[in-house]
């Protein structure tokens, strides 16, 4: 029962965060960041797929309406089906908006890794041993998963890939959507411009740790 309640709360929070992101994106009101902070997008890894689904779903709505007009006598059923189709299109736009309005952030506090409204992890610079660019493919499109060969490595992928390795000075527990992670020694993440993010991150590291891993 408690698990069901927690899941329901997560779903409600996710939906609310997505629609709020859509509103902010539409109104061009990004969330503020600290002075001197730099933001980095990661939506490029999934944007082509989302746009393709959006195009197909948008085309399906009038086609479905035509089909229902000739096969269903009830206007209520037809209107309900169209409403569901429109909701689905808006939901995907909201998902895209949530990825755009919540970028990764590099500032004086640390490296903030995000994935829409579902993932928000800040890694303080004191915990970072090195940051380097390394592109990797993942076996699934899950937003987070432990590495199959090393459970102390946490993959925070986008579009079944990562592009940056963040090595930690000691095992660290980070917040995940379903609760705290196991202690991890390395976090792998994705950014559209990994080189720019790594260069910016290294400015906050001592000289002996700027060369990466």
Explain this structure to me?
The chain has 4 helices and 11 strands; from the N terminus they run αβααββββββββββα. With 213 residues, the protein is α+β, with helices and mostly antiparallel strands. The model has no long low-confidence stretch (mean pLDDT 91).
Keywords:
alpha+beta; 213 residues; single chain; 5-stranded mixed beta sheet; 11 strands
Strand order of the largest sheet: 5-8-11-7-6
Considering DSSP H and I runs of 4 or more, what fraction of the residues is helical?
40-55%
Strands, total number: 11
Backbone structural class: alpha+beta
Strand content: 25-35%
What layout of secondary structure does this protein have?
Elements: H1 2-26, E1 38-40, H2 47-71, H3 75-101, E2 104-107, E3 110-115, E4 119-124, E5 128-137, E6 145-146, E7 153-156, E8 161-172, E9 175-176, E10 179-180, E11 184-189, H4 194-202
Parallel strand pairs: 7-11
Antiparallel strand pairs: 1-2, 2-3, 3-4, 5-8, 6-7, 8-11, 9-10
Helix pairs in contact: 1-3, 2-3
Describe this structure in a few short sentences.
With 213 residues, the chain is an alpha+beta fold. It is built from four helices and eleven strands. The strands form three sheets. The protein has a five-stranded mixed sheet, with helices on one face. Strands 1-2-3-4 form a four-stranded antiparallel sheet, with helices on one face. It has a two-stranded antiparallel ribbon with strand order 9-10.
């Amino acid at each position: 029962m408690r698990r069901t309640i927690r899941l329901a709360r997560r779903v409600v929070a996710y939906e609310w965060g997505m629609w709020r992101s859509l509103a902010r994106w539409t109104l061009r009101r990004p969330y503020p960041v600290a002075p001197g902070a730099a933001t980095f997008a990661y939506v490029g890894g999934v944007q082509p797929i989302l746009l393709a689904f959006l195009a197909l779903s948008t085309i399906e709505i009038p086609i479905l309406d035509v089909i229902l007009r000739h096969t269903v006598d009830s206007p209520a059923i037809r209107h309900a089906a169209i409403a569901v189709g429109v909701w689905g299109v808006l939901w995907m736009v909201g998902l895209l908006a949530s990825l755009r309005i919540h970028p990764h952030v590099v500032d004086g506090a640390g490296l903030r890794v995000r994935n829409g409204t579902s993932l928000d992890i800040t890694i303080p610079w004191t915990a970072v041993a090195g940051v380097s660019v390394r592109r990797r493919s993942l076996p699934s499109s899950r937003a987070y998963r432990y590495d199959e060969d090393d459970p102390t490595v946490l993959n925070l992928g986008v579009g079944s890939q990562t592009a940056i390795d963040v090595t930690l000075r000691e095992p660290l527990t980070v917040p995940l959507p379903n609760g705290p992670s196991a202690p991890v020694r390395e976090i792998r993440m994705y950014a559209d411009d990994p080189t720019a993010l790594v260069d910016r991150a290294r400015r906050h590291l001592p000289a002996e740790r700027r060369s990466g891993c």
